[in-house]
User: Fold these one by one.
Assistant:
Number 1:
Amino acid sequence: MMQAYLDRKQEAANIGMMVTALMFGFAILGIAVAYMVAFWWMPLGDYVNIRLDDFNTYEYIVIIASLIYAAGCARTAIGLSSREKSSLRWSQWMYFITVMIGGAILLSVIIPVGLKFSLLLGQNIDLRAIINNDVGGLAPLALSIGESLISLSLLAAGLVALIALLVFLIPPLESLREMDGIRMIVAPPRRFVLAIIAVLAVGVIGVLIAGAYVVPLYPGTTTIRDAENHRLLAGLLFFLPGLFGYRLVRQVEEESDELRRAIALTPGKFIRAELAKSPSAGAIIGFIAIIMAFTMATDLFLEPSSVASFLSNIATKGVIAIGVTYLMISGEFDLSVGSILGVTALSFMNFMTHGAPIFGVMEPVPAALLAIFIAFILGAINGVLLISTRIPSFIVTLGTMLAFRAITLVAIAGGRILRYSDHHEALPVIGISNIVFLVLAVIGLLVVAFTAYRVLPVLYRGAMHAWSIQNDNGDFGTTGAIIRSVLLAVVLLILLALVIWLLAVLSYHGSAGGGEMVEVGYFDLFNGRVLSIGSEGDFVHVQIPRNANVRLAIIWWFSFVIVFHVILTSTSFGNSIFATGGNEGAARAQGVNVDRVKLQNFAIVAVLTGIAAIYETARNPGVDPNKGTGWELEVIAMTVIGGALLTGGYGSVVGSLLGALIFGMLQTGLVLVGIESRLFSGTIGVIIIVAVILNTFVRGARQN
Amino acid sequence: MQYEQKHRDALVDMIDIHKYFGSVQVLRGIDFHVDRQEIVGLLGDNGAGKSTLIKVLTGFHSLTRGQIYFDGEAVNIYSPHDARELGIETVHQDLALVPLMSIARNFWLGQEPTYEIGPFRFLDKKMMARESIQALADVGIHIRDSEETVGTMSGGERQSIAIGRAVYFGKKLLILDEPTSALSVGETQKVLDYTIAAKEKGMSVIFITHNIRHVYEVADRFTIIERGHKLGDFYKSEVTENEVADMIVTGQIPERLRLYEEDAVGD
Ligand SMILES: Nc1ncnc2c1ncn2[C@@H]1O[C@H](COP(=O)(O)OP(=O)(O)O)[C@@H](O)[C@H]1O
Ligand SMILES: [Mg+2]
């Protein structure tokens, strides 16, 4: 008994030594990376091509980040060796960060290489000819088979790596039962984890071999270059020992009660719990993975012009996706949004060109309001049909989808396009009095003041509290206090900057005197192109690059996301939406008027769709009778990628935002990478399935 | 048709209640009443119509025919909301909680506390968390985190939360539909304790079960229904536990009790 105890104590001590030594190792590795980037070279891919002679922003970021990382490792290692109270918890975080860094670097190799290989496969013919010239004989066939295998294994390895990172976040099953406090999701057995790591290793070795032996395949492009090999090495250096260290720390934690008490919340548990709380967890992971993949695969992806164009393209669908998310959370479904979009766009245009029955030819703003009202009516028809007949919404809206579409098809006969320019000489212009800007600035100041009033005291108290308990929290207490103080300072500065800017706006428009008119294109109000933020001589002045097509709808979209997010999460209406979809009977039994909730949601979808229709029309003042066809499924895809459950009761507005962004990024990114646009829908299909699997996995036991 | 209130002092008096789902006649003329500060055991085999009867009372189902008096007045209960307004809280057998929502949100569902900023009203989440933890602790349910999702909890825990909620909000009448079916012996005892506590606070309780053992100890009176009809009302002093159990199973009133039964009907 005693002997066993001593043995375990000895074992724990040994592990402790290893944990400390490894941590020192990572500190050195961090410094080495900084050194290599600064004074030698550290190729980080096409986009981040770092050499001694051309320092760029990315280099500075990498250098600073790796120095901070090294400092963190060193501090933790010193803490460990002098047995500081909280050092074990910190080392767990440091190892966790290390593994994440390693994983990210590995993914940055695996994903672009995989993409390139699949690209090569898609362009078989030209490529073969080139290789033929070089190699001849049976070699091309062998190569192409080899490439297919490597390509597949790489893509698989990339996916597996992602899953492995996730699985890795889950603490082992045994320790779960002991953990009182947080109820966790059932973890997969260790064998599964081991299998994944094994597959990952095989995939990585595949890359190594491929990198070493596959020759450049066609002029100008190489499959695996030195750059990627070096990155692979760096990634492995971070990932594997980091993983090892993390497991060791966890073992120490499991071994010793005392140590376990020191570790309040492990990174894995914390992140896992946070992710499980958020319906958009899967979407967040996918979002990051896709940005990384495309950034690594092509320089063009993060160009302001590509970002602006995909945001502008996706904004209208994103607005609709908000409403569809609401509806889906309440357990219903709307297939008719595409047709509602068509009808609204058509009515809007028709009111301005041919006129409405009572009002005659209308100005754009009243026309827009009337058109949105028509959208509202269509949504109400959906809702009333559903409630009064109790037919599933899939069927009801399938019917109305076809019926509403008939309106546009009949109204614009012969597939013509109804154009604004066919009826009016010039696009409409509106004069806005500068008093409007004055009022807006005052409202802005009030909002800032209110935010400051609410947020600053909390932050201030937090910082003061951190300082007061710094000694109780060991030496790391000071670090925590400093971080909190910096946070306070940053928020303060941002608020201050806003105040100065708003005051500048006030004085600029105020000095011009009341009544001065600023001319704005009417359509620009809805979805105009943004050329700059602030103007020459303002306190804030950002000139938007010429080729970047930034549309106002992006700002509308983000504002809607914020407003609808708040409504969903922080009002009783939002609560009833979740309850209605989650368990209609229980919601009704607690006095929620579920029929009203559904009706309201159908109306919300329709109105948002109507607003989206105005954006579309304002951007391109011409309506064709098939406008919006197929949008309903795309929007549902976005919502599902964003984590909403088709069965209701679960989802988030932020998820719909991410889903739309993922959708847009894929659309733009695949084109930039050079994959045929015909493959887009296939890719989206795969992404939806992967997203749902990820979401289900992350959600774990929440879904009961 | 005119209905006479039969029990003038009763809190609830349901008279000649019929409920048909299409051609399925689930309730066929049931008279049911609950006196003030009384615990009534509503008994019957599975499928007898117990849940349907109280769903009619709580506005979840509409009446096909019949009349409900509450607190001495004829009332029309069109929705569960109306029932809650009257002071009726229910723990439904199958409709207790929303699994994907947190404890606090489930607890306050349908009557969330809010605060106002200008014309807008936002959920008072702090209060929701604090009060739900406190209220559940008051009835002996200790939860760790009110943000925890109900779906991750055991059947017993969920049942306890639903009961805790009903006890917290209930003003006049507490309805428990098979509350003990998912519970351990200890938890069952706790439920019986709340039931008595609720009575002592001045409330009445309808305690539904098909297992007499769970309720014999606390109930003042038993109403037994059988395939949509009422078999009879029996005060605890009149019957033994075994007799009640037999009636639930056989659907027959034993010879010895027929006399009481006629008295009860005759008043
Ligand atoms: N919504 C409904 N539609 C049709 N039949 C129903 C419905 N609800 C209940 N029933 C039927 O009514 C009968 C009584 O059900 P219930 O009141 O749940 O019984 P108990 O609660 O006594 O076990 C059952 O036969 C059931 O099938
Ligand atoms: Mg029942």
Number 2:
Amino acid sequence: MALKQSAIPFAGTAEQEELLMAVIEKHKGEAGGLMPVLHEAQEIYGYLPIEVQNKIASELNIPLEKVYGVVSFYSQFSINPKGKYKVSVCLGTACYVKGAGNLYEKLKQKLGVEDGGITDDGKFSLEACRCIGACGLAPVLTVNDEVYGRLTEKDLDTILAKYKD
Amino acid sequence: MVNIKINNIACQAPEGSTILEAARMAGIKIPTLCYLKEINAIGACRICVVEVKGARSLVASCVHPISEGMEIFTNSPTVLESRKMTLQLLLSTHDRKCLSCVRSGKCELQTLCHELGVDDEIAYEGENPEFEIDTSSIHMYRDNNKCINCRRCVAACEKTQGIGVIGANERGFATFIGSPFDMGLAETACVSCGQCIAVCPTGALAENDNTAEVWEALSDPEKVVIVQTAPAVRASLGEAFGYDIGTNVEGKMVAALRRLGFDKVFDTNFGADLTIMEEANEFLERFQGGGTLPMITSCSPGWVRFCEAYFPNLIPNLSSCKSPQQMFGAVTKTYYAEKMGIDPENIVTVSVMPCTAKKFELCRDGQCAVPDIQDVDISITTRELARMIDKAGLMFKELPNEGYDNPLGNYTGAGAIFGATGGVMEAALRTAVEKLTGETLKKLDFEEVRGTKGIKTASYTIDGTTIKIAVASGLANARKLLEKVSSGEEKYHFIEIMACEGGCVNGGGQIIQPADVRNNIDLRAERAKVLYNIDSASKIRKSHENPDIIELYNNYLGKPGSHRAHEILHTCYCESHLYK
Ligand code: SF4
Ligand code: SF4
Ligand code: SF4
Ligand code: FES
């Protein structure tokens, strides 16, 4: 079974851990305390890798699977960091009917990542997003703040090539 | 009592009953899939729906309580139609390969489809997710393609065992049962207890089948193939052949094993007697010599793994004794091999166990009495033995009752009760107390440690010294007890832990009973009776009086705890850093 986690090593700092501990302390023993802890932990680290989830699980004295079950349930949580270049493909209705789903699949193959994944070199992360309000340009993707529209499969390589370094 | 009407017939049921329970009392079985008494009342599968007069929609009877004057219809056309649709939806994403499925014939999903006349298995053809089968662990596999997301396994792992290495991941249509970060079970701190398998209604979870290796050994003329059967196997095997739960089928089981071609049919009970000799001795050494206390038993490999992962602080407390399975195996490869003049390389020792963790135990480090030769070569569960008997065409019920071979088939009542919670403690006390006092016990029954209660404690005063003991079964119970022990809140001298609730009789390798049986019959108590009956009918009920054990010590081992005994019958443990 392949571990569903990126190859990017975890680089949490002592300050981050201190912040996390304070958050856990605040919500410990609270019914439903896991949700706010996860939210704030994601604020602190930007994502929720196994190291962070493990810490939360052991501090709250619950199994890691309990934490992971919740993290994987809500799409707002991410188990992978964002890449240097964050590729978001709009899967809103307008883009979707114009074939964004297919483009998204192609990008997964090209980058060799899953939904919400990141390439092993940390350069590209890939995710689907909701309508970004550029329906006239459908199908659309963004790389960081750059918007690319009226896409066809052919355009993908050219776009990725722009972000060589 | 609450007055209700079920299918127009007036009846009564205690307040607080669910519709499901009330109907059962009135002799009506409502089908269920996700419901498991005490641990999984989540109202998720909706197969148990019934019509309640005045209610806006069908209600899930497993979670809906009755109320005064309620009128319930359990079999109306709407109800039946709804159940049928539920099944069809389940089938639409199900890997419908009943022909080759390990559970076929005993599968709750299959049975329901049959009962409800679901004749169109592809009524809803849709997107079909494909899951990789998790074959990472030694003891079992998980095949989500046959999973119906009832979460009974999750409840067993988390609530009964207090472990929780499996759970529901993702959401909606994509939901599946898995481990954190989709890791394989082997990477988690799964303890191999198999309780998840025992509660699964379908073929999604099963032990890894090792019968092919057994058949191979049996057909190899070079090999001397020895089989040992754990105490609890004889208390459950009959369930696979139409016997009532709680029937002792020892004699027919021995006959079956002989007819399968095993060269020697021996008994793990002998190994249990041997374990008691070593364990009682170790306890007295620790007790009198200022060793680490409480001493905790180590016969249950699921528990040992739990200790190593979750209570590493208690590793020094674990008895260094190998389990009966392993002690028995060690004796076959040393004493027995020498006695019979057989090269241990040519001996294949097979164990039949009520347990899936035994598959894991036999390949642990420190389980080779003869260097590089495993004490036990293959371990199969009670279920796998039943399959072998079927495959060989043996008509189990028609078989004669036969006895075990000697010398490793001779056992005492103390060895027999090893398979029930409290049994190891009782057997050890019988020997330890006599050794301590040098007198013969007047009463051999230690009632305080019997019964299916999760945690039992007692103290005995012997010649002015008090020995405090505790017994726990089911790892969630064990956790409760050990947290108190670790914090110093409670103090004991001797603790017995078994990973499965009720002990080995309810092990993860026993014959599987569907939820309807599990919810209404206490399997633990019914099967344990078999073992206590064997004990009370035994002429010899103390391990140290087993003549073949005495001979083993006289001719080979010397004394309990001797150097040779340590070489072959003891082992060690180490902390494991797996994901919890
Ligand atoms: S799990 Fe049940 S229904 Fe599914 S293939 Fe196996 S026997 Fe058939
Ligand atoms: S074998 Fe035991 S510990 Fe492992 S997943 Fe199943 S119930 Fe949990
Ligand atoms: S594996 Fe079995 S017990 Fe677990 S959810 Fe699936 S069908 Fe239910
Ligand atoms: S909802 Fe009642 S058995 Fe599943």
